[in-house]
Amino acid sequence: MGLGFKDKISCSEDFRFCEESLPKVSRTFAINIRILKGDVYRGVLLAYLLCRIADSIEDDHYFPVDFKIQKLHDYASLFPPALHYQEQISEFLQPLRFAQETNASVLVNNTERVFNELVKLPEPLVAIISRHVKEMAIGMAEFQEKGLNTRKVFFENQNELDQYCYYVAGTVGLMLTSVFTLGSKKISPEVKKKLEERSVRFGLGLQVTNIVKDFVEDQKRGWCYVPRSFFTEASIDPSHDLLTEKPDRLLKVEKRIIEHALGYLDEAFRYVTDIPRTLISYRLFCVWPLFMAIKTLAKLYHEHSFLNDQAVKISRKDVRKIIRNTSLCAISNSALRFLYNKLRPEIR
């Protein structure tokens, strides 16, 4: 590991809180992070929780728009941590009152505990995490300023969708590449450049997949993250039409957004194969969510998820199979490519 990263993991009460919080706010991410070690593990774990704090504020149903904007900017101002970060966090949390207690709200209310561990990381790692979480929070506030949560359809076109996904997921892709590069001297400047070129698209692929997966549940809440232009291309007005009354047209919208996600996931696969084959833990960390996303899209497409009343999800058996098969093939690009092409749905 570079920079003398340690394999011994902190066992403080605050770090235990962070480890216990992760599966409560993301069961999927809690699976692949186990493969990482030392300060890379600690850094990625804390980075995810810090991103989740911003997301919890943005996603709250009850906070007014102006309040969300202010709190996201306040949160961004906490990075990088100052010497008096505890006082700043106390001020940040003072007016935050969630309507109900959830795993996400508990995490937000314990922001200081995450920061207590963040400041223990090597300074270069703190700088990387701070830069990207700050950009994420400011970007989320920017989209709130556009009044997105006052409209049923949040994005007018693909460009708006991609810009939003950049802030909430593309920044994470860039951050991971920087952390991986910092954590291993095996990633040369040439390889780093390749990874950086695909980092954002990796994040966008996973985020657009989530948008497809959550379409039904979002509709029940009166939300829609699929761009308006995707609907108008299929001769649907998403603000007024009853979507279930136009199933053939709605399936065209579903196919369009799935194709969009697949394009990014194909780039994500190339990202994985650019990681040096000896860095198995980094490869698996990326391969597992990538293959789960591909399997999810295949299931969504074949089961016409946009027409279902209930959300469509892959099974635990599918997850175990993906982990088993990719773990056996992680060192071989050709073997991974075979598995990927076998899993990737054909959209006709």
Summarize the structure.
This protein is mainly alpha-helical and 348 residues long. It contains 16 helices and no strands.
Describe the fold and architecture:
The chain is an all-alpha fold and 348 residues long. The protein folds into 2 domains: 13-129, no CATH class; 151-343, Farnesyl Diphosphate Synthase. The protein contains 16 helices and no strands. It has helices at 13-25, 27-32, 38-58, 65-76, 85-93, 103-109, 111-118, 123-145, 158-183, 189-213, 215-220, 228-233, 247-274, 280-302, 316-329, 333-343. The longest helix has 28 residues, at 247-274.
What is the secondary structure topology, with strand pairs?
Layout: H1 13-25, H2 27-32, H3 38-58, H4 65-76, H5 85-93, H6 103-109, H7 111-118, H8 123-145, H9 158-183, H10 189-213, H11 215-220, H12 228-233, H13 247-274, H14 280-302, H15 316-329, H16 333-343
Keyphrases for this structure?
2 domains; Farnesyl Diphosphate Synthase; single chain; 16 helices; 68% helix; disordered N terminus; mainly alpha; 348 residues; globular
